[in-house]
Amino acid sequence: MKVLGIETSCDETGVAVYDSEKGLIAHKLHSQIDMHAEYGGVVPELASRDHVRKIIPLIHALLEENNLKQSDIDAVAYTKGPGLVGALLVGATVGRSLAYAWQIPAVGVHHMEGHLLAPMLEAKKPSFPFVALLVSGGHTQLIHVQAIGDYQLLGESLDDAAGEAFDKTARLLGLGYPGGPKIAHLAMQGNPSRFRFPRPMTDRPGLDFSFSGLKTFALNTIQSHDLDEQTKADIAWAFQDAVVDTLYIKCKRALQKTRCQQLVIAGGVSANTALREKLAQLATSINGHIFYPRLAFCTDNGAMIAYAGYQRLLKGEQESLAIKVKARWPLIETFD
Ligand code: KG4
Ligand code: ZN
User: How much is the pTM?
Assistant: First the structure.
């Protein structure tokens, strides 16, 4: 069975084909980063319009370049939430309509379930149960994953997501969008002993996060120093270290609480090298294992949606003919 996956929830148009026998056989991505960079962040209306322009040519190119015909496709999966509502509607409308025209099933996918399952596309994949740390631009969540669709929320951010904190702090440092990779790059020149940022909510029990205070701490540090290149790098280092250490402490607690030895990290921030290294140490220290997607599948992509859609189809799920999306949709809640 071959599933065409479509992702348009934010600023990437992603398409892919997952084959139940061969695994991932095709994927393509058009990133809007350059378009939004000029504005310092994603402009929702521009995002929707660009998805409209790119999605059909991208699907055509995906099929053509991989010698696939439309009749090879057995089902269409698309992201139906959460995300920017206009952007979601583009992928959902195209996905649902293609499935209707091709007379095959359609299935709507939760964007964060896509991220959560992205490590399953790799050779080294986890087995159930495991703990997943989902760290993206919109979410920071710890989830106990028992099976596909069996997700227990262990903790989440009460304010900014980790990626959002990276983006906001990068903006304060004048680094541009998206901030995560820029801070990570600058931090490599940082002096580790110059600043120490707080580790929010680690001094009390529990698995929730709060990252908005770090952004304020960064602002205060910036305002009380001359912002030369070295100081910027030192702040980037201290900020990243605080986020990574906070995530480390909470992951450790989550693994202890659930008695799991497998940790999955996914979502845009899981591309961060310092985070991967620190969590790999954690996994080794408990004789466990860490799993993450290849770099290209940490951020948004169609492959994870094709895979998650395939899993949902296996569970017998299908969309009706109605095209529905949700801007806000907690992973542990049913869609309707
Ligand atoms: O998963 P994603 O592509 O989109 C959402 O679903 O939100 O995540 C994007 C987020 C952005 O906040 C970006 O700054 C962050 O992931 N990010 C990183 C890195 N690469 C992307 N954060 C830290 N270090 C990175 N290397
Ligand atoms: Zn995402």
Answer: 0.96
